[in-house]
Every structure is written in C-alpha cells, then in structure tokens.
Amino acid sequence: MRKSRMVTLVAAGAVAVGGMAVAPLTFAAEAPRNGCAEVEVLGARGTTERPGLGVLLTPLAQRITREMPGTVRTTAVDYPASFNYTASVRQGVADLTAKVQRTAAACPETRFVLTGYSQGADVVGDAVTGPLAGDLDRVAAVLLFGDPTFTAGEAFNVTDGNRSGVFPRGRGRLDAVADRTRSFCNGNDRFCQGGASLAAHLNYNQFLGDASGFAADRAG
Question: Is 144 in contact with 121 (CB distance < 8 Å)?
C-alpha cells in the first residue's frame, strides 16, 4: 500500500523526463570491462527514463569518473523504472544487489558508489536497508536525488524544505550508511517533499558538483 499511489503521482513527471535526451554512456577514465576497477558507480534511473543511467545520473557518473584518482567503472541498474511501481522497485533492488555482490566476489578491492534518482533513489534505499544490509563495508558513498522515501530531519539531507516525501522511509532507517550518504531534495518537490512542484523534481543538476565531490572524497 505504501507505494500504490505512485502511478498517479508520477505520470506527468515521467512523461517530461522520458522525453529528455540521454547522454551517451562514455567515460574518459573508465576502467576496462575485463578488469577490476577501484571504484564502481552504480546508478538507478528515474521512472520511464530509457535504459541506462538517465539524464541526471549520466553526467554525475562522468563527473565522478573525472574526479576520482583511480579507475572507475559505471554500471546501470537494469530494471523497468515503470509505473508498476512496487514490482519495478523490487526488480531494481534485485538487480542492484546482484551486481554489487558479483563484483564484490570477483574484485575484492573494489568500492562502490550507489546513486539513484526518483524511483531509482527508492531502489537504492531499499537495497541498502534490505539485501545489501550485510554487505555495506565496501559501499563508499550513497547519493540520492528526489527520493520519494525522503525523511525529514536526517543529518545527511541536503534540502531547503522541511517535509518528508510521499513514502517516508522513517528516521534512522539509513543509519548504517548515514556518514556516507547525501540525499538531495528540493523544497516543494512533488515526490521527496510531497509538494506541488514537478519542476523542482526535475532540477537536480545544481547538486552534481556537491555530489561528485562527496563521492570522490569518500571513495578516495
């Protein structure tokens, strides 16, 4: 029931996001696919964005790659990002978990930066508090944008609003990664603040520098 209202809530925003151009997934300092990177950036896109990292997480991953001193691999979470919200999030959590665990087993020195926008932020949060809860020692940073499960009052929040999202996760649920997390939420954002503004939900490019710098610092 927690997420049953999302189909109605996201319809207008998803159409707007889905119509935006997606930058090609090219990263100047990315590690070879057949080797172990020092850092793997995993990204879960927002609702109805085309497969890949999406319009926000693509430039974020590019910035992180440029700012890291070592090798970086970027990986998109493979999930529907659809209006069938609960099932879509569940598939995203499963795919993100499998990718982290697969890399962790093959590459014991690789650290992870987990990123998510909108529905993708929900995916990352559910993975961290669920199946990845026992595998967080190598998670260097968690970056969330426009998270519907945003909870007001957390120390890692970056926002000019004071409300919780449409599906608040609850205080303390992300305590295990609180020191490694930044959750960016614009005031009046329709989803992470339960506000009235779709434009606020689509305007997170302003935080890319802060987010990439935080990730580079934590992973470094």
Answer: yes
